[in-house]
Amino acid sequence: MAEIGRSIVKMDVNELLNLLNKALSDEWLAYYQYWVGAKVVKGPMKDAVISELQLHATEELGHAELLAIRIIQLGGVPVLSPAEWLKITNCGYDAPVDHYVEVVLNQNIKGEQCAIQTYNKLLDITREADPVTYNIVLQIITDEVEHEEDLAALKEDLQLMLMRGK
Ligand SMILES: [Fe+2]
Ligand SMILES: [Fe+2]
Predict the structure, then answer these.
(1) How many Å lie between the centroid of ligand 1 and the Cα of residue 94?
(2) Ligand 1 center to 110 CA (angstroms)
(3) Which residues contact 154 (CB under 8 A, 6 or more apart)?
C-alpha cells in the first residue's frame, strides 16, 4: 500500500473509498447497459447508435479501471461482487426492455446525467482534499459530458430524420 501516498489525503480515506466503490459500481452497470443496449437496439439509425453505444461501453470500462486502480492505491478493495453493484450504485440500472432506439438513447442520456452529477460532487469533495483522485475524476467527468452530448446529438438527428424523412 502506498503509505505516504495515502497519508497526503486530507479527508477520511474510508469515506473516500466508499464513494469510489459506489462510482465503480455505477461504471460496471453503465458498461453493461451500453453493452447489452448495443446488442438489442432496433429502429432508424440503428448502426450509428450501435457504434456509439459500443464506444461508450468501452470507455465506461476504462473508467472502472481508473477507479479500481485508485481504490487499491488508497489501500481499499474494489467491490468484489456484482450483487453489490445494485446495492451501492448512485445511478442504478435501466434495463433496455423496450429496444426502440429513442427509448434506449433516453435511458442512457439519463444515466450520463446522473454520472455527471455524481462526479461533480466527487470533484467538490476531492478538490482540496485529494488532488490525485480529483485528477482522475476530472478525466472521467470529461468523458461523461462528451457521452451526454453524443447521445443528445444522435437523438436530435433521429428526431429530424423522422420529422423530415417522409
Ligand atoms: Fe463512466
Ligand atoms: Fe458515460
Answers:
(1) 15
(2) 13
(3) 45, 48, 49, 52, 105
Whether residue 48 contacts residue 104, with contact meaning beta carbons closer than 8 Å, is answered with no
Mean pLDDT of the chain: 97
Angle, helix 46-73 to helix 131-164, in steps of 10 degrees: 170
User: Residue 59 and residue 31: Cα distance in Å, rounded?
Assistant: 8
Judged by its nearest atom, the ligand closest to the C-alpha of residue 90 is 1
Measure the CA–CA gap between 150 and 130, rounded to whole angstroms.
30
C-alpha of residue 143 to centroid of ligand 2, in Å: 6
C-alpha cell read off for 145? 459530458
Write down the pTM of the prediction: 0.96
Which helix H or strand E contains 116, and what residues bound it? helix 101-126
Cell triple for 139: 478525466
